[in-house]
Amino acid sequence: MLFRATISQTVFMLKKKESVCVFYILFFIIIINFISNVIYFQGRDIVEMYHPMKLLLLSYNRTYLNATNTLLLIQLYPLLVVCPAGFSLVGEYQLGTNIFLVSRLGNFTYQVSKYLSAFLTTMIVFTVPFLLEIILNCLSFPLSATGDLSNISIYDSAYRMSVNHYFMKNLFLFSPYLYAVIGTLFWGIVSGLLGVFTVSISSLIRVKYKIFLFLPVFAALNLSTILANDLPREALSIKWYDYVLFFNDELKSIRLLLIVLLVLILFPIGAVCAGRRKDCL
Q: What is the pTM (predicted TM-score) of this model?
């Protein structure tokens, strides 16, 4: 029952205009980034060419060349990540369809399936376009290219030091292509958790206007960048995008990342437990 309810709600949410709109926005930014790469690097000798995965939109390394598209994604992300599934629960509360679903599934199954489908929907929307970009780059740029957009030689000690700051650096050293795929999936997982976080807030706090559901994620993500400006330059980064963009050579705290992920996982679980104590109708 739980599995079928999750799949049906996921399919329904993926067809909603919010999910479709966010998917096309992300795909449009990716295509703009891809076309600009093709135009800029056309005819370049393979010896001078950069690694295809470092040209991706999610690659922090590409900001050494042109940060426009990646910066646009960073600015839009706190708003876009809420849209695919964040309003699903409050919409059903407003329309009263939750009463029918709870009566058929039970309150626990209804809430858990809603959270799981919100996670899957958001993850799919924020993963598929970027996996397509990986395929496009592999087809369009030489796979044997090894250059770094910082223009530091891969044999330089400064380059080795920057690689040591990569999240999952051992995976990168094993295969940059596998590293990019896993990094994209991690980006999708974090996006899915943020989507579930928004849904769980709407289950605990009944809001009249959906626009208020943008605030928690938007405030938290932007607060991390604001507070980072007051920290010493050599301090560990607390900027959210330093932990989800790959090929990132900023100093990071894995402990901080694990704490944030744990909070994003435990908060919906707590919301489910709190929901079980309420009258389901």
A: 0.92
